[in-house]
Structure formats: structure tokens, C-alpha cells
Amino acid sequence: MSLVSVIVPTYNRRETIRAAIASVQRQTFQDWELIVVDDGSTDDTASLIEGSDPRLVLIRQKNQGVNGARNAAMVRSSTAYPAAP
């Protein structure tokens, strides 16, 4: 169980998602999980990041909007204290 869950909803952000993930990975605090919710992207965002870090949890879902993506991540979170998106 990680101490902190970082939630990143994404939709067609193939060009920027790696930078967002790298930002989390560069933190000095290391007890985290990163939950990326691909909210129905059509640009292959999910396949670009799949398996890139063992602490990264990838959720794929049909497009439900940012609130639906955040809610899906909250349900999946393995910590009692998810970080604000």
C-alpha cells in the first residue's frame, strides 16, 4: 500500500502525458502510486505509457469526462489519502 495516490485523468494527451509522469517520478518522496485514467483517448495515449513504471496504475475507460475519470481513480486507489489532482 502506498502512502500517497496521485491521480491524472487524461484524454488525447499523447504529446504531454510522459512529462506529467516524469514530474511525479522526479519527486524526492517515493512512497506513491500514480493512477492514470485514460478517459477514452483516440490517440493511443494509454499504449504509450503502459508498463512504464511499476507504481503506475493505468485505467482505461470510455469517455466519461474528467469527473468520471477522477472517480474511477479514487475507487482504485490503494491508499486512504489520495492526493488532489
Strand-helix topology:
Elements: E1 4-10, H1 17-25, E2 32-39, H2 45-49, E3 56-61, H3 65-76
Parallel strand pairs: 1-2, 2-3
Give a nutshell description of this structure.
The chain has 85 residues and is of the alpha/beta class. 31% of the residues lie in helices and 25% in strands.
Description:
The protein is of the alpha/beta class and 85 residues long. The chain has one domain (4-76): Spore Coat Polysaccharide Biosynthesis Protein SpsA, Chain A (Alpha-Beta Complex). Helix content is 31%, strand content 25%. It has three helices and three strands. It has a three-stranded parallel β-sheet with strand order 1-2-3, with helices on both faces. The longest helix has 12 residues, at 65-76. The protein is globular, with a radius of gyration of 12 Å. The mean pLDDT is 91.
CATH superfamily: Spore Coat Polysaccharide Biosynthesis Protein SpsA, Chain A
The topology string of helices and strands comes to EHEHEH
**Largest β sheet strand count, sense and barrel closure:** 3 strands, parallel
Content of β-strand: 15-25%
- The oligomeric state of the chains shown is single chain
**Strand segment count:** 3
Q: What Rg do the Cα atoms give? A: 12 Å
The helix fraction, in percent, is: 25-40%
Mean pLDDT: 91
- The total number of structural domains is 1
> Architecture in CATH?
Alpha-Beta Complex
Q: Tell the overall outline.
A: globular
CATH top-level class: Alpha Beta
| End-to-end separation | 19 Å
Instruction: Note poorly predicted spans.
Output: none
Helical run tally:
3
CATH fold category name: Spore Coat Polysaccharide Biosynthesis Protein SpsA, Chain A
Arrangement of strands in the largest sheet: 1-2-3
SS content category: alpha/beta
